[in-house]
Amino acid sequence: MDGDPAPLAEFPESDHQAVARLREGYQKVKDELGKVIVGQDEVIEQLLIAIFARGHCLLVGVPGLAKTLIIHTLAETLSLSFNRIQFTPDLMPSDITGTEVIQENKSTGDRDFKFLPGPIFANVILADEINRTPPKTQAALLEAMQEHQVTTGGERRALPEPFFVLATQNPIEQEGTYPLPEAQLDRFMFNIYVDYPDEEEEFQIVRQTTALEKSKVEKVLSAEDVAVLQDIVLKVPVADHVIRYAMQFARLTRKQKGNVPDFVDEYVNWGAGPRASQCLIWGAKARAMLHGRAYVSTEDVAAVAYPVMRHRIITNFNAEAEGVSPDEIVRRLTELIPQDPEQLAGGGKLSEIFRSADAV
């Protein structure tokens, strides 16, 4: 592929053509990432789902699993501007958002304030080891993630579109770290777990990274393409029973409201809020189109349930003592929640169905 990619606006916009175009772009991005990244297919798919659904991602994994490389390479293939912020204990909010400095006009001698933009003014922000900075600095990302703007010197400044925060976190070392507040965790659409490669993948990684030649990725989509594809994803229709199916993943974790399965009552302290239901539908829409479908199924919702829910379910001491993780809670919910439209439309009958189910 030579030069910049053709703008998506030039392509016809019928439903089937839009699906085909998104599917084609998805496959091309995967192919380009495959030149540099070995394996991690599920991580790459979830990242692309979040991007086309306008979501932010938190990547959790031990060091050396190419989290930073995946994000940098992805931004390159999508022709998006990229900035990396290394979070440290001494990082200040102004180091992220930017600051105003006094600058002298040499011709007139007047002194004026001039705003120097911080690294957050880019399409893709890699917040590396986000839990290594204090909450005051972590909070500098909140307005940017929610409103796509920052407020400095009493003035609101819009961030470039599209805008994504892709943060990384080490799950092992907790000394000198500051856990993310629940309000900030909830702003991340996906919590993506990056696992170890298998033996053959690790062999390919070692062989590629210890050679002199380095693969070069090419631009597949432009920033304008990504924005158009995001609009297309939002237009995907969703049946009412699919929405109700997605809602149950969040509603059945709220033990304070009652009518929850026994395992939720035993192991969950706090459940997911309404944003989880929204993220499930946004993610399901994007996944459906990436897989070549112009409609959303309950399977799409179930496929994105783990990255959407795992950081929104707060387990208690019982769960920790027995080794029950949020992923295990999601797995049990997936087995429990009916996919039949008539059962999902039953309203109050749902609690009876769940109570009578064998939730073990």
Describe the fold and architecture.
Helix content is 45%, strand content 15%. It has 17 helices and eleven strands. The strands form four sheets. It has a five-stranded parallel β-sheet with strand order 2-5-8-1-9. Strands 3-4 form a two-stranded antiparallel ribbon. Strand 3 and strand 4 (111-117) form a beta hairpin. Helix 10 (240-251) packs across helix 12, helix 10 (240-251) runs parallel beside helix 13 (298-309) and helix 13 runs antiparallel to helix 15 (326-336). The relative contact order is 0.14. The model is unreliable at 1-12 and 353-360 (pLDDT under 50).
Instruction: Estimate percent helicity.
Output: 40-55%
Global geometry: globular
- The average pLDDT is 80
SSE order: HHEHEHEEEHHEEEHEHHHHEHHEHHHH
Poorly predicted runs are 1-12, 353-360
Looking at this protein, list some descriptive labels.
disordered N terminus; 45% helix; globular; five-stranded parallel sheet; 360 residues; alpha/beta; disordered C terminus; 17 helices; single chain; two-stranded antiparallel sheet
